[in-house]
Predict the 3D structure of the following.
Amino acid sequence: MATFLNLLIVGLATGAIYALIALGYTMVYGIIELINFAHGDIFTLGTFVTIAILSMLGVTAANPPSTMSWVLVSELALACIGSFLFCAVLGVLIERVAYRPLRNAPRLAPLISAIGVSLVLQDVGKLWFGNTNVSFVSLPIGSVQMGPVNVDVINIFVLVVAIILMAGLQLLVTRTRIGRAMRAVAQDRDAAALMGVNVNLIIGVTFFIGAGLAGAAAFIYSLKFPNTYFYLGFEQGLIAFTAAVLGGIGNLVGAMFGGLIIGLIYSLVTLIPATVLPHGGNAWNKAVIFAILILILVFRPSGLFGQNTPEKV
Amino acid sequence: MAVSESPRKLLPNTETRKLLLKWLVAVLVPVCVFTYVWVGEQMVNGVWLSLLYPDVTSLDHDPWSLIIQSLFLLLVYGSAIALSGYLVAADSGRRNMLEVWFDVAFATVVPLVLLAVTSNLLISIGLAVVVWGIYLFVRTRIRRARHYTPPAPLASLHVIDDKERGALLRLAQQAGLWFGIIFAVITLVADIIFFATDQLAPLLLIWVAVRTVLLPVAGYFLGRLGGRMALRYTVAPDAGIEVAQSEGAQRGRMGWRGNARKVSREEQLQSLSASRASEEARDVVPNDKPLQSRGATRIYLMLLMTFVVLYPILDPILFGSGTKGRITSYGDLGFYVILALGLNIVVGFAGLLDLGYVAFFVIGTYAWSMVGSPQFYVLTGMIARPEIFSWFFWPMLIIAALLTALWGVLLGAPTLRLRGDYLAIVTLGFGEIIPIVFTQMDKYTNGTDGIAGVYPPATPCIGSFCLNWSNSPTPYYYLILILIGVCIFANVRLRDSRMGRAWIAIREDEIAAASSGINLVNTKLFAFAAGAFFAGIAGVYHAAKLGTVAPGDFNSTDSIIYLAMVVIGGLGSIPGVLVGAVVVYAINLLILNQLDTYASDPSNFLHFLPQLIHNFTFSNVRNLLFGIILIVIMIFRPEGLIPSARRRRELHHTTNEDEEAEPSALDQPPGTPEFEAEMKVE
């Protein structure tokens, strides 16, 4: 039981990270109907920037801090903001260079271009930190006893930060002028332009926020997981995108729940014994996730929360 | 058309002089480059020397190789002369001379020089494609800056009567003859210089003398042949029924029929929409772009196919030592070509974005490696003896392909309701799942270690002549050549079939296709099955050739590479996909490795890069390069290097392939024939 609860909490925390990445996918898809394949790799670069900023401040994996102090907390906050800004600016740049010229091209064109950007970013990461695993700084954060389970504080921290970010995004989209403009552009770009919305600016803002969330997710990821490498974002991005599709792509709430569900599955699959699947569930978690995705899409082709819009002729 | 009076003299008149100059330079320059910069002269002299000096051991006296070489040389020079005749007869003479010369220089001289410099086929092809792309880009810019407007396309439809046919034929003869004379003089002068500087064996002077006489004579007849080819594509005059009947009595029924067909072709062309007709008019003689017309393309194709078929024998003469390695790598290139052709069916024809194509390749690979290897014992308890089981390669080629096609249907079935991007992610998922399955089911597949000792195919011996599958790459080269031939044939037939048209229809608009009575389920499933079928063939071949199979060799990046081949070449275009596969393979496996050897050499100018950037190697930035290529191609040429005609029309709705402004029929007021023709459904 304790194992199960523990896995549940770990799953929720992992899922929160997936949800943050999935939000970027879903926002971009909602507004320009493009699978932003580069999003996962923006996330990778976010983890690298986090490491780079922390090592510039003297906090390295080889020389981890022994106690928590306000200095350390402010350094971490700086890393988080740095990662957010870096990824956000990168996202806007990518949109400007690779997607905007193709806005009226046939649908496959921007997708291929996105794959191209993804390949480029992967190799940039590879050139920057090499072809190996790069360790994150391990923080001196302990665990607390909650009922029968011993929970790592970091999981709770991750959940809290993710929930704050998601709530903020939800507020931004539903309550502010910019959010309204974003929804308008997502609904009908031409009509929004006629109503005086600066479409290019709004698409840029969407990329800024979406990629920024990936940067924040990268920072949180660096707290929770031991290491990163250049291909990490592509793999995690695939799973996060699955989460976005699962929730119904283009739907913010869907992406959040999709992320949490995928995180839970990812973590609970470990419970499957080796008698059912060879080598136990852990070796199969990606396969299980995609199998579930396929199953869900067979019965609900537009995801759990997506509306099944009839096609216009 | 410049030819109004029939030139009976061998000297060209003033009107045709310009035409001759244009095409003789355009053909002679590449031929001379081939002869003197690359290997032409060496090969000819090599053949004659080994015939004339049978005692010299350093020469290659293998009769088989000599026959192949002389055959190849005859074809190259013969088709060059015929081509000059064809081009002169086919040209409408409206395009600028310099334009043609530049085009020809970048399309032929640059690759030939690159071949001579690098003496590596794939590297020079890859670089030539890059140069060609830059050239096209610059050309478009210059044209736009100079407000260049090409001649209106349909005006080139020119009706040719018997008198003019005769004149064209004589013109072609003249071109061939003059080609022969000029080339004979050039080679004579060159050989005299070589002889004077003691670089020419004295006995070869016999050949020089014979050649000088032979070339003009051959030119006369081959030019006539080229002219005949051009005349096949002319539009004959509308003789009318009465004339045709009176002539029919003399010429027999076929003459009347032939006439009637050609007249209807003219009408047919007139009634087509402007963009479509401009494409069709390209093959009519005379036309604006004879270099791209069907007759010329046939000559290129014939040359290319001869080269490819004879390649293993020509290779040591053309590129020196290392033949075995090169032929091995071209065998590998072959299965990429098949994979790209298969993926082209799914993505290019049917428009179903499949990002997990590698899954089918894995299934195909394992299908043969589980049967044709010691692993068969693990699976069934029966010992798979190589001398027997090697024979099963041939049936397995089909069985495994059918098996993967079945998997295509199985994996395709759940995705039928999905559209566009959902489909992409589900197929990507399949691409991830299948290698995981093959890794984890180690009871059957031997897990991450993979299966080793996969048997090569077996063939019967003819007398004492046996194919050496285990040591020589040449049998694989021919095997993959045959397989590619079959796949191209199947691809073309599929594209033009009822099913192929249904694929294109659902690619364009699923709902419209469904309302026109196309069964979406069957059509999509058949597309998946057909695509997977080719992956199965490629997989079996790959397993047999490599001998070992491991799941780590396959991941979703591979699927993206296959997609890159299809997209770079041109979605839905079969020649485009072939070129795309070659280009991607060339960049991927040869150019980058070659650059790495340059960069690691301290004396080379590229050496600064690894010093500047930590752990820099060119193979490390392979994806960076691919990514940039993909983005650039998508932005500047979204239809790919060699787009299919239909897609080109789609993507450049008002402009044709060179982005030239072209008056659209829809600019006409309603009621005019042009407008009505455009409104008609093609």
Notes: Residues 14-95+150-234+288-303 of chain B form one domain. Chain B is about 70% helix and 0% strand.
